[in-house]
Design goal:
This protein is an alpha+beta fold. It contains 6 helices and 7 strands; from the N terminus they run ααβααβββαβββα. A hairpin with a 6-residue loop joins strand 5 and strand 6. Helix 2 (about 15-30) runs parallel beside helix 6. The longest helix is centred in the C-terminal third of the chain and has 20 residues, at about 170-190. The chain is globular.
Amino acid sequence: MIRDDLLKGPVGESAAAALARLKEFNDALRDQTDWIYHVDYQAAGLHGLAEAERGLGIRLPPSYMRLLSDHGLPYIGYGKNSKPDPLLFEPRQLRPGDHCVYDPEDLLHVPAEELDAVMDRLRASAAFQQTDSGAYNYAMFRTDLVNEDGEMPVSLYLHDEVYEDPEGFVTFDQYISAFVDESNAGQAEDYA
């Protein structure tokens, strides 16, 4: 029986705690399947984080900095012998959101009167994750919207929808916690 607290994280859960919950949840499934997620960390280096901030001309959100400086860059593998892939870009790979538009045709479905606003939002964003391997879909920090704690909301750039702001102000910690909630719920449906 999978504990309910592993399926949904508590309010205010940190990204590191959410990833630990992902690991604990999948450890509980070990007897049922070999196809479980495992989380590893690789040192991110404070120098790389400082270089990323200089290159982007922003201060990165404290929740993101805390995960990478305290634990490192998370890698997630699926399956017992799989090679883990980075969950997030390495700091040196962080880039302004407008670099995520590889093909002008990605924006053909945007009405002409909205194109400048879309590009402004993309320029005011920093991509930190490619959400779908092989697709031009990215999770980004909205660098133009910073709260009093230095946190930035996470927004999504989807190649076929362009830009989606979250409901409310979703921080990096909340984004990772929701990712783990969704992952654990899917695994629970399949195996629990």
